[in-house]
Amino acid sequence: MRPDDTEKMRPTTQEERRDLKATVGRLLRQVGASNVAKESRVGEAHLSRYVSPREKDFMPLDVLADVERIAGYPLVTEFMAELNGYRLVASEAEVDAPDMEDVSRLADTKGKLLSALITSFLDGKIDAHERRALLPLLDDAIAQMQELRSGLIGGAV
Fold first, then answer.
1. How many CA within 13 A on the CB side of residue 76?
2. Cβ partners under 8 Å of residue 77, min gap 6
3. From residue 43, how far is each of 36, 46, 54, 150 by CA, in Å?
4. Is 47 exposed, middle or buried (0-12, 13-18, 19+ CB in 10 A)?
5. How far is residue 77's CA from residue 80's CA, in Å, rounded to a whole number?
6. What is the pTM assigned to this prediction?
7. What is the largest distance, in Å, between two alpha-carbon atoms of the chain?
8. Is 133 helix (H, G, I), strand (E, B) or coil?
């Protein structure tokens, strides 16, 4: 995205907008763009524009609400809150305290991620195919850790 005069005058920086697109990309990888296209008003082509740093388009709020609902976690909303100096905290009514099932699921996901990382590093580099396999595992682990964190902050133990 090349900045023009209006881009220079915006209150958000180009880096912040790039990070916003990257966060949207993480969210879409978690849920799968094809799944979002089936349950939202936009198709996969538009979704790819929302994550491309070369495109000026950003995901509309109603589509973001759909995607975060599908994901079960407000990843982009949390990023935007932090961008503005706030911390997003789930209401107590919606937060479940973590239990052994959550810990077991996280351990399983992290085990798969570590195994895939080790396998990928055997040849000394991570290629595009390995990256496509690793990113969803990493995104799953991050989402599970975020859920665990929310439960620890707001859930009753």
1. 29
2. 64, 68, 88
3. 8, 6, 19, 31
4. buried
5. 5
6. 0.61
7. 53
8. helix
Q: Which residue has the tokens 């879409």?
A: 28
Q: Indicate the residue type of 119.
A: T
DSSP 8-state secondary structure symbol assigned to residue 88: -
Residue 149, number of CB atoms within 10 A of its CB: 12
Per-residue pLDDT of the chain (157 residues; tens, 9 = 90+): 455 566 678 899 999 999 999 999 999 988 888 888 888 899 989 999 999 989 999 999 999 999 998 888 899 999 999 999 998 877 765 667 788 988 999 999 999 999 999 999 999 999 989 988 898 888 888 888 888 887 787 654 4
